[in-house]
Amino acid sequence: MDKRFNGYLSVPSARIDFPEDDRKEISRKIDEVLKSGMLTLGKYTKEFEENFREYVKTEHAVAVNSGTAALEICLRASGIKNSSVVVPTNTFCATPAAVIHAGCKVIFSDIGDDMCLDPDSLQNSIKKDTKAAIIVHIAGNITENINAIKDICNDKNILLIEDAAHAAGSSFAGVKAGNIGGCAAFSFYPTKVMTSGEGGMITANSKEICKKALVLRDQGKESFNSNNIVELGYNWRMSEISAIIGMQQLKRLDEFIEKRKKAAGIYNKVLKETENIRPLVVPKKASPNCYKYVASLDCLAEGKIKREGLKKNMKEKFGVSLSGEVYDVPCHLQPVFKNFFGNIGLPNSERLCRSHICLPIYPQMKKEEAEYAADCLTKAVGDLR
Ligand SMILES: Cc1ncc(COP(=O)(O)O)c(C=O)c1O
Asked: Which phi and psi (to 5°) does residue 163 adopt?
C-alpha cells in the first residue's frame, strides 16, 4: 500500500526486500542449524561460497563477517605488507582504514567524471614501494577505463584489488565485478544490493590468496579443527545464519538488479528533460547493478544551494528521502586521514563529492514513486535557487 506524506507519495531512501517465501525458507534453515548446533563456518557457509563463486565465475570465494574484513584479508593474504597502496579518495572510510590495518601506507588518488579511479592519477600516484591499487566500483558502476587501469597495474607489476562492496552483480564486457582484478572484496551490509545481515566475501582466481584468506579469517588456525596457529589472524568468521540469508538473497540478485534498472530507466527518462541535473553516465560495455542512482547538480557545484538544505526540503516538503552520497566528503579531507597525510588537494574528487546527490532506489520501487521522486528533485532545486 502507498504511504502518503501530506497527501503526496512518501519515498524512503532504500527498502530491503525479503519476500515471504524467502523469509520462510530462511526460517526453516535457521531452525535446522539451531537444532544441529553447527552455527558458524558450516555447510551453509560452504554452499554460499560455492554459489557466489559460481555466480562471479572465479575459482575461489571465501565468506567473512564484513566487507571491511574482506578488504583487509585481501591485502594481507596477498603479502604486500610495508608497501604503499593507491586508493581513490571517494570511498567509504573502510577502504583506506583496511590498508592501514594491513600494515601498508595509503596514497590517495583522484577520480574521473565517472567517479571511479582516474588512470592518469593512478599512474602519477604509483611510487617505488607501491604494490597494489584498489578500484572501488562506485554506485555499482565499473569504469570504462578499467582496461587502462589493468594495463597500468600489469605494467608496474602491482596487484589490482577490487573494492566491490557496491557492485554485487555488476559487470563490464560480460565479466562480473569480483573477477576483474587479482582479488575482490564484497560487502553484504543491509543496504547493499544483496545482504546477509552483516557479511562479506572475497573472490579470486589465486589459490594462494584464498588459502591464506581461510587461515586469516579464523584466527590464523592452520585449519578449522586445528590448534596450530600459523598466522596472526582475527575473528572474521561468517555465521551460518548470515550464510543462509546471503544464499537466499543471491538467488534473487539478478531479479533485484532488473527491478533497480527499471527504476533507473524511469529516472533517466524524467531527468533527460532537465538541464542542470546530470545523471552519472553508464559506460556502453557496463551493466551496473544500480546500487545508487547518482546525479550531479550544477547548483551544488556552483555553491548556489547547499546539499543539506536540498535534502531537508525534499524530505520535509515532499516526503522523499535522498539516499547517502558516494561520498559527501572525500577521505583525504576526513579528520582522521588528514592527521595521517596532512593537507592534500584532489580537485576532481572534491568537486564531484560536493556536487552530487543519490536518488532513492530499491527493487520494489513503483513507476509512480520514481517519477514522483525525480519530479520533486527538479521542484526542490527550483525552490532553493
Ligand atoms: C566502498 C565500501 N567499501 C567497504 C565497505 C565496508 O563494508 P562493511 O560495512 O560490510 O564492512 C563498504 C560498506 O559500506 C563500502 O561501501
From this structure: -90, 95
Cell numbers standing for residue 40: 558458524
- The answer to whether the CB of 91 is under 6 A from ligand 1 is yes
The CA 199 to ligand 1 mean position distance, Å, reads 10
Which residues, other chains included, contact 331 with Cβ-Cβ below 8 Å and sequence gap of 6+? 87, 89, 90, 91, 93, 95, 96, 108, 337
Domains and CATH numbers, the chain: 20-249 (3.40.640.10), 253-384 (3.90.1150.10)
Q: Tell me the CB-side half-sphere exposure of residue 159, using CA atoms within 13 A.
A: 24
The pLDDT tens digits for 4-46 are: 666 667 899 999 989 999 999 999 999 999 999 999 999 999 9
Does the pLDDT value for residue 280 go beyond 80? yes
Cα 14 from Cα 12, distance rounded (Å): 6
Ligand 1 pocket, mutate which of 92, 136, 198, 217 (most atoms under 8 A from CB): 92
68 close to ligand 1 (CB < 6 Angstrom): yes
**Does residue 332 surpass a pLDDT of 80?**
yes
Q: Is the pLDDT at 271 greater than 50, yes or no? A: yes
Looking at residue 114, the DSSP 8-state letter turns out to be T
> Is the pLDDT at 106 greater than 70, yes or no?
yes
